[in-house]
Amino acid sequence: MNDWLQTSIEFLKGVGPQRAKLLREELGILTFHDLLSHYPFRYIDRSKYHSIRDLPMVDGFVQLKGVIIGMNESGNGRAKRLTVKFQDETGVIDLVWFQGYKYILPNLKPNVPIQVFGKPKQYSSSWNIPHPEIIPMAQVDPNLGWQPVYSSTEKLTAAGLHSRGIQKLIITLLQQLQVQQLPETLPASLLNELQLLNNRTAISAIHNPSNVQLAQKARARFKLEELLHLQLELLLRKQISMQRTAGHVVSEVGDAFHHFYENHLPFPLTNAQKKVLKEIRKDIGSGMQMNRLLQGDVGSGKTVVALLTMLMGIGSGLQGALMAPTEILANQHYIGLQELLKDTDIRIALLTGSTKKAARKVIHEALLNGELHLLIGTHALLEDIVQFKNLGIVVIDEQHRFGVAQRARLWKKNTTPPHVLVMTATPIPRTLAMTFYGDLDVSVIDELPPGRKPITTQHRFEKDRLVVFGFIKREIELGRQVYIVYPLIQESESMDYANLMDGYESITRVFPLPDYRVSIVHGKMKPEAKDYEMQLFVEGKTQIMVATTVIEVGVNVPNASIMIIESAERFGLSQLHQLRGRVGRGAEQSYCILMSGDKLSKDTKKRLSTMVRTNDGFEISEVDLELRGPGDIMGTQQSGELDLKIADLVKDGPLVALARDKARELLAKDPRLELPDHLYLRMEAVKRLKDKPNWAEIS
Ligand code: ADP
Ligand code: MG
Questions:
Q1: Got the DSSP string for 587-653?
Q2: CATH number for the 254-445 domain, one of 3.30.1050.10, 3.30.930.10, 3.40.50.300, 3.40.50.720?
C-alpha cells in the first residue's frame, strides 16, 4: 500500500499525540488509511427534525430543534454530571454529560435556538440524551443536505471527536488525497464487469456525497470488496483444511460407551441426538482430528451427547475434558455427570478456580497417571500445570465466551491435538456459523426430548400487575415455584440495584410470611450467600426467587414453572430466550411473563412479540440477527474476530452471494492469487490467514 496511506494519524492536522492515542484505543484507527475506512454508518437529512414527544418510538439517532430552559451541574469527581433541560414545541428532555463537557459550555445559552443531535436512552421510566452534539441554529448551514454520521465513543466525544469532529478530520484528509497517488485495490476486470466506482471516487463519495445515490454506490463497492475478502478467506481456509491434521483414531465405539448406553442411560436418545452421535463417531474414527460445532436449543440435551462422545474416547484409552464458561455451569455439569456415572467405574473430577490446593494436586497427579478419565472445569483447566496422560476429547460448552488464545492452549496438552466438540445453545444461522467458525463442521440437535410442554409466553404491562400477582398466587398454591428477574446493566448499576430492592420489598409485601418465602440473588452478594439462597430455592424451601440475570445460566429447578421478567424491554432477545429456558423443565405447563412499560420502540415491540410468538431458538436468533447485527450477537465487537466494517451479513444477503460467486471464479482462474491484477486481494488474504489461524492449526 502506498506510504501516504500508512502515515500515522498523529500527523494529520487537528489530531496530535493525545487525540491519536484516543483514536487508536477507542476505534483502532492508527493511520490515514484507517481513518478513511472509518465509514459513516448512515447519513441524515439535515433539513428534518424529530419531536421530543415521539422519541420513545424512534430507534437510533435523532435531530431536534429547540431551546435550553435550564441547566444543572451535580456530583463531583468522577460522578460529576451536567444536566440540561431542552425543550421543543412538543416536550422537554434532559441532555446529559458525565465528563469532559467543558468544551461545550460556551454553546449552552438559555433561550437561544439550538440543534441537538444524539441517541436517546431510557433510564428506568425517563428518557435522556447522553453526550449529544449541539450547534446554535444560527450556525446551521441551511444548504447542508446529507450529513454523514460516524460512530464515536464517550471518550472521543469528550475530546471533541464526536461524529462531526471526525467528519472534520476526514474532510482534511480528503483534501490531501486529491494530490496523492491512490492504488486501486479491486481487480480491474471486476470493476468493469460490475460497474463499480473506482477506489478514489468511492472514498470521496462515501464521506462527502453530493447525493444519496452516489453514497449508496460507494457503499456497495466497499461492501462488495469487504465481502470478497471474507469469501476468499473462507475458500482458502477450506482448501487448507482439506489437508487436515491427523488425530487420535477412535476405531470402535468401545466398552465404556456400550456399558453406559445399555445400563445407565436414563432415557432413550432422541433421533436428533442419535444423528449427531453418528456424525461425531464418523469424525473421530476417521484418523483426522475432529472440529465440530454442536448447536442445540436450551434443553435439547447436548450434555449427554458430550458425555457419550467422551465415553467413546475413554474406550480407546483417551481422557476427556469438558470446559464451561462459568463456575456455576461447571459445577452443574459435574453434579449431573457424576450422578449419571455413579454406578460405573469412570473416574471424574471437577477443577475450577475455587478448587483447594490440596485437591488440585491430587487431580493433577491422577490426570497424569491416567487414573482420572474425565475432567470437568472452567478456564482453570487451561493452565499449563494441568497435564494429561492422554487427552483425546475436549468438549467446550458455550464456546463463544472462549477466545482464540484460550483455545490454543488446549493444543499444548498432548502431542496429537485432541478432538474438539464445541457446544452452543445460542443458535447461529448457517451463513454466520460458516463465517465465524471457518472450518468447523456443524451438527444440529433440532428436536427437544419428548414430553416437554411448550412454554406459554405473554406480554403484560404495569396496569396488569395485580392480575399477574393473582396468577402467581394460584400457581404457588398448586405447589409451583416462580422466578422474578430484574435487569442489570452496568451503565446504571446502582439504579438497577435500587429497582431490584424495591421489587424485592414489594414482592415480600404481596407475598408475606409465613405463607410465602422469597429468595433473593444478585451480583453484589457474597458467593456463599448466593449459593445459600439458591439452595433454598432448589430444595423448594422458598417459592419465589427474585434475581438479576445471574440465574441466566446454570440453575435447573424443574419445579419452577413461572418466569416473570421485569423491564423486559431492557433485555436482548437471546437473553430473554435463555431466561425463559429456566422454566419448562418439568412436567407442568410453564409460563413466561414479560413485564414492560407502555412506551416501546419498534425494535422492542418486535423483540417482545417474537418471544410471545415462538419458542424456537433458531427463529429467535434470526430475528435477533436482523435487529442487532452479527458482531453484536457474537460479542465479537471488542475482540474483533469478525471484522466487517461496512457490509452486513444479513441485510446484504444478495451481495454476500455475489461475493461468493466472484471469489469462486477468481480462485478457479488463479488459485493462489498470483496475477498482478490480484495483488491486493492476495495481500489481504495472506494477512487474514495469518491473523486468524484455522482451528486445526492452532498451536
Ligand atoms: P442443553 O442442551 O441445554 O445443555 P441438557 O443437556 O442440560 O440440555 O438437557 C436438558 C435436560 O433434558 C436434562 O435434564 C437431560 O437429562 C434431559 N434429556 C436429555 N436428553 C434427553 C432425552 N433424550 N430424553 C429425555 N430427557 C433428556
Ligand atoms: Mg447445556
A1: SS--EEEEEE-S---HHHHHHHHHHHH---HHHHHHHHHHHH-HHHHHT-TTTTSS--SS--TTTTH
A2: 3.40.50.300
